Amino acid sequence: MPALVSVTEKINEPRYPSFKGIMAAKRKPVDTVDLDDLFPDAAAAGLLVTRTRVVEAVPRPARAAGIRIPDDGLAGQQLAEHLIAQELV
């Protein structure tokens, strides 16, 4: 299904539930919905219901060390040459 997710500047401010809300949540039932419950007649209608599975999970490679350009008067030129060599400019 399409989804839209947005983040605001208040993302790092946790919201704590009230005691009344915690007690009310304990009494509410938790409904479990299966994919077949969502699309009961998908096979009969000829629709292909997408079922995904994770084939492989690989950790992100470690970041390579950067380079330092000391500012001896030619730092701007060296930086520009580096960016051109990396095809970033």
Largest sheet: none
Total of DSSP H or I helical runs spanning 4+ residues: 4
Report the average pLDDT across residues: 82
Q: Strand fraction band? A: under 5%
Question: Would you identify the regions where 5 or more consecutive residues have pLDDT less than 50?
Answer: none
Through-space gap between termini? 38 Å
**Cα-based radius of gyration, to the nearest Å:** 27 Å
SSE pattern: HHHH
| Count of beta strands | 0
Structural class: mainly alpha
Helix content class: 25-40%
Overall morphology: elongated
Description:
The protein is mainly alpha-helical and 89 residues long. The chain has a domain at 12-56. The protein contains four helices and no strands. It has helices at residues 19-27, 35-38, 42-45, 75-85. The longest helix has 11 residues, at 75-85. The two termini are 38 Å apart.
Keyword list:
mainly alpha, 4 helices, about 0% strand, elongated
Could you write a compact summary of the structure shown?
With about 90 residues, the protein is mostly helical. It contains four helices and no strands.
Topology at a glance:
Blueprint: H1 19-27, H2 35-38, H3 42-45, H4 75-85
